[in-house]
Amino acid sequence: MLKNIDRLLDHILEDYNKWGICLQKRPKLHVVEERTQSNFNYGSYVHAAVILNPNQKIKRDYDMMYRIAKVVYEGTGVSKEKIQEEIHQKIKEALKKSEKYMDQQGDIILYPDFFSESGKITADITLAHEIWHIVEDGRNLITNSIWSREGSATYASYRLLEVVHANTDQPFRGRPFSHFAHPIHGLYDACALITSKYVEQEQNPFQALLLPSIRAKIEAECEQELFKRIREFYVTKPLEEDSKDLL
Ligand SMILES: [Zn+2]
Fold this sequence. Notes:
binds zinc ion; globular; mainly alpha
């Protein structure tokens, strides 16, 4: 099984190479037997996760979750202390669960469902997505924006693999927030769609994605749109103080 995945990885790296996107070293794949977390799958939506520096990554992602949480809770009457307590608890759990992966050398962690047929996202899209994270990390394009980060990796995977709509053969670049039951579910695809507006017409959209000036615009629009949707969502569905299903 890993042999096939290795070949797939080679293909994807070659495809990125054609756009002048090269990694310093070949990412090492590592298969784990279980997910590190059940609820907060930071790093990946469905199948795999990149864990280059777990502590830094978790902190960064949770900083973002905290910012989103603040928007979620605005106007809902839930106290700030409650938010802090919940986020701190989740950070603690995440760090504890990731400890056992700290010594492993994998750049891309593959969860068991990566190999299942039932996943919504295919292996090539997942690998192309995770590799894009490594590309950005390698260039120190550390953005504090989870939406820009996930939107660009999702866009890059669709663009690289020339994913098309099933019926129309038109390029598929994601779906708008309105297609999702909860704005957070749309974070990947809707932010990819926003991203596409800024880079799709560029001669080399992948290089364009790495330009800080373009990224700043993408980041701003993704954040504005996401936060607007979250506010709208919770106006119609206010949170309960003891809700465990927050984000
Ligand atoms: Zn991702």
